[in-house]
Specification:
single chain, alpha/beta, Rossmann fold, Hypothetical Protein Tm841, Chain: A,domain 3, 2 domains, 4-stranded parallel sheet, 11 helices
Length: 284
């Protein structure tokens, strides 16, 4: 780490198990409130806890941003350990106050000469691929500005697509407009969402879950466009559907290099509900 640029992110990147450690990335978790119980994402609160609470309607599920002091501690630890600077890559500033916390923490730690903060304008592996790009650049000896630029470029070129069984959880959390959510409920449609300019946007509506799966696959192939890509397949409490989708995409994408798979954690689960299936496409 000595002399290198350190990379920090938050827990909504949902990097596959072991990848953050392998890349030397520090992950600072968000906080999740399930009913009256509060905990740290990925430590005290698992995706299954949130999925069960939502399915059973056991109280409100909410999330809270990473606190500035938690990020200050991460930045100072990296610099004290010999890092030449820090690039901190985070969930969309539209979806969480974590980016704002990172900006406050960066100012406390010496400003942009020491810490550069990236708004990924996304979440899950839409964020995670930007983190990977930053970490790989840092490992190659890139400067602070170069690592920052690597993360920004990747964040700008990824495509995130998500299928959910209902828009109700997104409506409750204020992540999608009430009118869109009520329309989806009234028509009993199955929505496919994308993350556009940092916000969650309704992309298409289909009538059945099976059509939703087929359309998600087709949109992924369209986004890849026959080019070389990495992809990530996400799910919440739907591992079999995710595995089947990953298998179909391996066969359908001739330019596929790597296919990651991971379950989304509590912070995203709280807003999407069980049954989520998503794909993130990252061009090479």
């Amino acid at each position: 780490m000595a002399g290198r640029i350190a990379v920090v992110t938050d827990s909504t990147s949902y990097l596959p198990a072991g990848l953050a450690d392998g890349l030397g990335v520090t992950v600072v978790p968000l906080h999740v409130l399930v009913g009256a119980a509060s905990g740290v994402e990925g430590v005290d609160v698992a995706p299954a806890d949130v999925a069960r609470a939502l399915a059973e309607r056991r109280g409100v599920v909410r999330t809270s941003r990473v606190a500035p002091e938690e990020l200050v501690a991460a930045y100072r630890s990296a610099v004290d350990g010999g890092a030449a600077g820090v690039v901190s890559v985070h969930i969309s500033s539209v979806l969480s106050g974590t980016w704002e916390s990172a900006m406050l923490a960066a100012r406390e730690c010496g400003g942009s000469a020491v810490v550069r903060v990236v708004d990924s304008r996304s979440t899950a592996m839409g964020l995670g691929f930007a983190v990977i790009a930053a970490a790989e650049a840092a490992r190659a000896g890139a400067s602070l500005d170069e690592v920052y630029d690597a993360a920004e470029r990747m964040a700008a070129t990824t495509t995130s697509l998500f299928y959910v069984d209902t828009l109700e959880h997104l409506r409750r959390g204020g992540r999608i407009g009430t009118a869109q959510a009520l329309l989806g409920t009234a028509l009993s449609v199955k929505p496919i969402l994308t993350v556009g300019t940092g916000s969650i946007v309704l992309k298409e509506k289909v009538r059945t879950a099976s059509r939703g799966m087929a359309r998600l696959e087709a949109l992924t192939v369209e986004a890849a466009g026959g080019s070389a890509v990495d992809i990530a397949v996400h799910h919440l409490a739907a591992p079999e559907r995710a595995a089947a989708l990953a298998d179909r995409l391996r066969a359908a994408l001739p330019g596929l290099r790597r296919c990651y798979s991971s379950e989304v954690g509590a912070a995203v689960a709280a807003h999407t509900g069980p049954g989520l299936l998503g794909v993130v496409v990252a061009p090479l």
